[in-house]
Design a protein that fits this description.
15 helices; single chain; Rossmann fold; alpha/beta; globular; 15% strand; six-stranded parallel sheet; 2 domains; seven-stranded parallel sheet
């Protein structure tokens, strides 16, 4: 049995996108509730969103000068070896001064140097892989770490079988009973009760092609008699805010009350990042996935297909939006049976105890 008074030192690294940051914060919160005296330190990439989001969650963070490799030859790529050397050097200094009992990585560039150094110093390491197709950082770290917590089946192709534990992805606990919040959520967004609500999500930074689609189809959506909560991303908000409160449209740069947004929605259009997919399984509403084609190994399409192949969501590729969107959306709108069927099936795929299970695995490593 673990001693809850132990003052463990726990280092976490993951970032670049909300999909890597949120799981790291969720794991830290769970460990903090078990070990109130523990000390936590996050390590991120210097100019990425974790430098803002992690302190907002109440944790200290140090930044490394690191970024991913671009696909084409760019100045950034030429800088990569220097950034890597700098990051390894600084990761070594951080590990040496903080002296962690364990290192936890949730993917993203910064977790590579940090976990590589921790593992080389014989510090127990655990990584959490959110996607059905692992990122390069976690693939490279797999041989060095003790445990790999995953959210999908069939990852033995990439990771040593004896290290894999299927836990699912950490998700917000406030999503677990959103059915009870529907009325409150519709009031919160000033929505009309009894009118269909479409929630459009393009990820924390926004998705240009989804935004273009919604702008192009506003008249069509109006003929479908839906009201729209449109999270366009902060990069695009100035461009689309003119549509705010016209034809039952509400435009937001970012949604802080995701539980209310999900509770108010009848149908959801979303990217297929791993965290979003895990949340949508818990939410249990009919979803149309529009995966981003601009991500490594096309992993969003693979994430979406893992759901679609269970008859639990619809998928439209970006290149097919002009041809397929109206047709598929109106089919879904006109079939309450299909909506119910997709909602029930996606809910069956939810793994709701992920954060607890990952924390259990961390505790086992700490006790060793």
């Amino acid at each position: 049995m673990s001693d809850k008074n132990k003052a463990y030192k726990i280092i976490l690294s993951g970032g670049g996108t909300g999909g890597h940051i949120y799981p790291a914060v969720a794991i830290a919160n769970e460990l903090k509730s078990r070990f109130p005296n523990a000390e936590f330190l996050f390590v991120g990439a210097k100019d990425r969103m974790e430098m803002e989001k992690v302190p907002q969650a109440g944790y200290n963070i140090k930044g490394l000068w690191i970024s991913g490799i671009q696909r084409q030859l760019t100045l950034k790529n030429l800088m990569f070896p220097f950034k890597l050397i700098s990051s390894l050097w600084n990761a070594r200094k951080i590990v040496k001064s903080f002296k962690p009992d364990i290192a936890i990585g949730t993917g993203g560039f910064a977790s590579g140097p940090l976990l590589y150094i921790a593992a080389s110093k014989k510090i127990p390491c655990l990584i959490q892989e959110q996607n059905s197709y692992p990122g390069i950082t976690n693939k490279l770290l797999a041989k060095k770490v003790q445990k790999i917590c995953v959210a999908y089946d069939n990852l033995e192709r990439f990771f040593p079988t004896d290290k894999i534990i299927k836990t699912g992805n950490p998700v917000r606990q406030d999503l677990l009973n959103i059915e009870s919040k529907t009325v409150e959520a519709k009031d919160f967004f000033n929505l009309k009760h009894g009118k269909y609500t479409l929630l459009v999500l393009g990820g924390s930074l926004g998705a240009r092609n989804i935004n273009d689609l919604i702008e192009r189809e506003l008249d069509f959506l109006s003929t479908q008699n839906v009201q729209v909560i449109w999270q366009c991303g902060k990069l695009y908000y100035n461009q689309y805010k003119i549509y705010n409160n016209t034809k039952d449209i509400q435009v937001y740069p970012f949604l802080n009350n995701m539980d209310f947004a999900y509770a108010a929605a009848d149908i959801i259009i979303s990217r297929a990042g791993a965290s979003s997919v895990s949340e949508l399984c818990i939410v249990g509403k009919p979803v149309i996935f529009i995966p981003s084609p601009n991500v490594a190994e096309d992993h969003q399409t693979k994430n979406a297909l893992a759901i679609v192949n269970n008859d639990a969501a619809m998928l439209i590729k970006e290149e097919d939006l002009e041809v397929d969107f109206k047709n598929k959306f109106s089919q879904l709108m006109q079939s309450p049976e299909k909506q119910k069927h997709l909602g029930e099936n996606i809910k069956k795929l939810a793994l709701i105890n992920a954060t607890n299970q990952i924390a259990d695995e961390v505790v086992k490593l700490l006790e060793k």
